[in-house]
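the two lines:
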Amino acid sequence: MSAQNSVLFDAPGPRARQRNIVYTVFTVLLAVVGLAVLYLGFNRTLADREGPLFSAATWAVNPDGQWAAEKWEPFLRPDTWTGYVIPGLQNTLTAALTASVLAVLFGLVFGIGRMSERWWIRVPAGAVVEFFRGIPLLMLIFFTMALPIVAWQAFDIPTGTFQVTALAAVVTGLTLYNGSVLAEVFRAGILAVPKGQAEAAQAVGMTRTQTMWQILIPQAITAMMPAIVAQLVVLLKDSALGYIVAFPELLRSFTLLATRESNVIPAAIICAVIYIVINLALSRVAIWLERRNARRGRSSARPTAVGGAPVGVDATGTADGAAAAEAPPEEPDGGGGRKQP
Amino acid sequence: MEAFLSNIDRVVDGFSWTVRLTLLSALFSFILGILLTAMRVSPVPLLRGLSTAYVEGIRNTPLTLVLLFCGLGLNSALGLSFADTVATDVFWWAVIGLSAYTSCFVSESLRSGINTIPLGQVEAARSLGLTFTQNLRMIVIPQALRTVVGPLGSVLIALTKNTTVASVAGLGVQEASRQMKLMFDQGIAPVLPTFVGFAIGFLILTLPMGYFFGWLSKRVAVVR
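prediction for all of em together
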């Protein structure tokens, strides 16, 4: 519902315009107060403040505070970027890209496995997907890190035989969790292809495997692309959990930098900006794909909702994954054909 | 398994923090989410802009960073203290961080719910002379809420799992995943049973939630 032609309110008349001005002024005041509290808090902690609130000394930039120019200056030096930010970004992207590829493969195998006509494939695949979707990603990462201990305790393999790096643990966790969510996306997408397609394929004598790979998946994939890309945004964001297991990714680089320069707030702000820019760019790709699909209108499958949850939710878990196929209200930006007239 | 079961009180304690974090954050993020949605569709351009900027900004920031900011930045800078004990203090900061983050997803779900309401509903309400606030309160939000029960359930499940991030440095809430990590590190119980035990704990929390919201969303679905 865009701002200009919203049906929730009329074009403002004189009284409404006045009221809007009052609201605007009130909001601006609130925002100014909020920003002032933040400014003062990071300038010198609120507890440390001496002297009255409205004095020049209180509002002047504290040379030891977070707003002092020297706290921001590190971000103008090239060695900050080459020494901290770029290596961190590289590690984040390495983990995210590796995990993306593996998660898509995992999702394909288990998503299709879950639709198998043989129960001894269907049931275990479903159990695996539900298990990894239902437990927190962080626990998976902790467990993967502890695998050498498990090997020692359970199988008497001496510790030190093999080691699990933080990167491996993060990639494993991201793969298992996001792969399980993607498995549900794939299943929902394939189920959303009209039944007649599979029936027609079998009527002309194609095997089930042929039907799946030549008829169903090609049609489903275009409808699923936005949901897949949205899940990859989640994956990229979740790679920041590597911070907790000391994987030197972007967030960890920034905290190291913040410790060295004691500039927590500038570091946090710039780190957030980098993540936001990358994720917004990826989200744009998802929206662009969706628009393109809507324009082409070739696939007979309905668009797949994002894992049964709004775009960008970093853990999706309706117990009934097929609910995603029933196209609940999702993706407000480009929902194309689904909007009510 | 016996070693794990003999430490069951630690497990229960961990999950009690998880549940407390989940319930309080769910409450606050629901309220904040409705507020953000109302701002997002309001006639005042500034409110719309603020809400959009907040949702798009926080939603695309990793939760780890949000919680770190609460723990290392806001906590020390603002010097706000909620209680005398550190444990309670960091707990409330974790609740603030989780609510700030989750409210964005509540708001996005609600907004997509609003988009599914037939135009006629809103037009009829307006032609009866309902003001924007009345329209929102009596027509739009109730229908939107009923449509998005399923997605909101997913958000709640995600929140339950996200509480594990509250073990991050600067906060260190003693919730379930942290207890699990401590039990791994202290070697009180073998790793595998400990992991399975905690995993079952989380499945006990999340699976019924999924079924409940699935049932509820069918139950309250708006018939059109």
